[in-house]
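ingest -> validate -> predict -> emit
validate: passed (alphabet ok, no gaps, 220 aa)
predict: started
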Amino acid sequence: MLDHVSLPEAVGRALRHRILNNEIPAETRLVEASLATEFGVSRATIRDAMRSLQAEGLIAIVPRRYSVVTRMSLEDAEDVCFARYALELASLDQGFGASRKDLARSLRLALDHMSVAARTDDLDALVASDTLFHEVLMDVSGRRRLKELWSMLNSQMGALMRAGIDRQGIGLTEAVERHRGILEAVTEGDLDRLRRELRAHYLTDPDPELTARPDRTGDS
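emit:
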């Protein structure tokens, strides 16, 4: 099916792709007039696109001046990761759901898509596949409101992953491999390991600035 989107959304998607793939690096100023000329749209369209990118944490807007590409702060990244960890852990409270084999199959497919995105150096596509991977875990509980809370954080995942990859100095392939333990735990049917893998995935960060701090989440 054709994906019909508005002009601001189309421009926003194009800019998001460039920002996530570092074609427009951090601290780059985005000027309305220049972007309007490049895309052949009005400045109002550019402003609408910028507001969506600001909501995703990818840019900061300086009123009546310009916008600038930003990176999510360490503190904000910790908050987003903890929220997703808590929600995904809650989804697994009653176990693997109706069919563990189907769950493992869906996770493996999403991980394969992530690997393809990593090989083509496309973080934008990797973020989409990462969202699908974790969505599979969120669907285990079947709880609609829990899923809605989790979905509210999705718009910030691009900013979170771009900032994390830059801060830790890792490649996209390593970012993908950090999901491998989750898949293995489901394949093995080891719920305790799955909980540990989720904790490590979201709450363990090799960045020395983070690991030097006391563990604020307590012992597992």
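The first strand starts at residue 29 and ends at 30.
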